[in-house]
Amino acid sequence: MFSSVWNFIKRHKRKFIFTGAVVGGVYLLGKYAQMKIKEIQEKEATEYIAQARRQFHFESNQRTCNMTVLSMLPPLKEAIVTHLNSENLTALLKTKPANKLEIWEDLKIISFTRTIVAVYSTCMLVVLLRVQLNIIGGYLYLDNSAGKSAMTPLAPPDVQQQYLSSIQHLLGDGLTELMSVIKKAVQNSLGSVSLKQSLSLLELEQQLSWIRAEVEAASDRSLSWYLLANGEDALADQACGLTEKDVMTIRLLNETRDMLDSPDFSTVLNVCLNRGFSRLLDNLAEFFRPPAGDSTPSSAPDSLPAVSLPLAKIIPIVNGQINTICSETPSHFVQDLLMNDQVKEFAANVYESFSTPQGLQK
């Protein structure tokens, strides 16, 4: 019996060897496949955790952006009111001076100028801080990810403080120049309009459009000039020296300038300005509604454009809008800007650019 089995094995030896090789190969291939699947799963889990961590950090950074914007609105409002003080003119009018008409004309220009300046500067503040804090946020994410292995932090605290202090340009020289340009445009548009002339909301919107067109069509500089000091010398002056910290600050300022000069920044700023002026008109529209109980055809909801007010009555309405625009308490005006989808997308793109290792190769 055993000899028969042995003879059978010898006759089919090659088949047994082949079958064994196949079975062994399949076993090894299965083990290899299991190992690779495990590696892929571990890699995917690591990437998922890293992505979740970065998303959490980004969202936290956006909340910081929002809080920073709100905290900067009171000093912005104070700077505007200091330079364009309509309250002094209002107090003078109460004394019934001989040059009453002249004071009213000054009040007309100052009231419109400071409200329009408030819209522009608030929109600029929102978008500028989105750029700056997401550049810083991206570098902080890389620093935290590198941990102790990082030889030199990309954004140490003292560099952050020095870099973010560049916002003073918007509150200082940039704001002063912006006021000058807007005041000239207001004078050109409204200077010849009589205080007794009645304007509808549509006519008021047209006046604002003319003023915007003149301000934004200035050929000598772009709107980004008002946000950050221009030129290498100015950037170096802000960094105040040639220490390693100052060199890092200059690098951040140059990167910011590149972002401010990009088409994406111009697009997002324009979106904010359109929304800002639209919200301003919505606020003004509340004062153009017919008196309650008016049963005339003009009191219909779609008759709002037909309601007109003398310019002298519009001036105090416009003058008070700065309290809504530059309010540190979240108002519809500021919320519209902070929650705008294109602003959020732009912020995400900036953060993405500076929170990946490839960003270091720029």
C-alpha geometry: elongated
Return residue spans where pLDDT drops below 50 for at least 5 consecutive residues: 44-49
State the total count of DSSP E strands.
2
Radius of gyration, in angstroms, nearest whole number: 32 Å
Which structural class do you get from the secondary structure elements?
Answer: mainly alpha
> Termini separation (Å)?
81 Å
Order of helices and strands: HHHHHHHEHHHHEHHHH
Report strand %: under 5%
Describe the structure.
This protein has helices at residues 2-11, 13-83, 86-93, 100-146, 157-164, 168-171, 173-190, 201-216, 232-239, 244-260, 263-285, 311-319, 322-325, 332-338, 341-354; strands at 198-200, 308-310. It is an all-alpha fold. It has a two-stranded antiparallel sheet. Helix 4 runs antiparallel to helix 7 and helix 9 crosses helix 10. The longest helix has 71 residues, at 13-83. It starts with a helix and ends in an 8-residue tail after the last helix.
